[in-house]
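In this section we walk through a basic example: taking a raw amino acid sequence and producing a predicted 3D structure, encoded as C-alpha cells. The instruction is simple. Fold the sequence below.
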Amino acid sequence: MPLVTPLSPNHDADTKQLAEFFNETLGFCPNSVLTMQHRPAISKAFINLNKAVMANEGRVTSALKRMIAWVSSNATGCRYCQAHAIRAAERYGAEQEQLDNIWEYRTHPAFSDAERAALDFSLAASQVPNAVDDEIKQRLYKYWNEGEIVEMLGVISLFGYLNRWNDSMGTSIEEGAVESGEQYLGKHGWNKGKHIQFPWIMVVVLKNQEIFSS
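The resulting C-alpha cell sequence is shown next.
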C-alpha cells in the first residue's frame, strides 16, 4: 500500500493547471504528483522543473530524453519510473525497434553511437558510487556539446528524484503505464512490484483523467 495517499486533482488549483503538461507526456497526471500536493509548493516546483528539463532544445530529442530516463530508472530499480519513461518515449516518437530493444541499446543496430554514449552516461551517472569517468566524458564530447550534456544530466537528476520518491512511496501505478510496461518491458521480467494498484487509487486516477480531459 502507498506510504502516503494521493490527493484529489482538485486539491490545488495551480498544480492542476500545471499538471496539464502530463496529458501530453503520459496521457494522465501521475499519482506521484497527486501525492506531492500534500505540500503544493513541492508539486508546483517539481512540474516546473520537469517542464524545463524535458523542453526540446535541439539534438537531444524528447524521445532520447525519455530513453535516458528509462536507463536511469532501470539502474536504480524503480519499476514505476521505468514504465513511465518507456511510455513517454513511445508518445514522443521513439522508433519501434528502439522501444522493443531498449535493453540491448549497447549492441542493437537501432541505436546510434551518439545515443549509446548518452545512454551509457545515464547508466554511469545513476550508479552508487557514481561511475562517470574520463572515458564517459570523452565519448560524450565526441558527439554532444556542453549544453546538450547539461540537458542529459538534467534528465538523469530529475529521475534520480523520481526514483527515490516513487520507490519510497510505493506509488500506485496507473493503468496506462502498466500497459506500456508490459508491452515493452514485460519480456524482461518487468512487473508492478510494490506499485500495485488499489481500488481507491484507481478511482483517483479515473477522476483525474476525466478532469484533465474536460
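Looking at the output, two observations stand out. The CA atoms of residues 8 and 203 lie 10 Å apart. Residues 146-169 form the longest helix (24 residues). In the next section we compare this with other chains.
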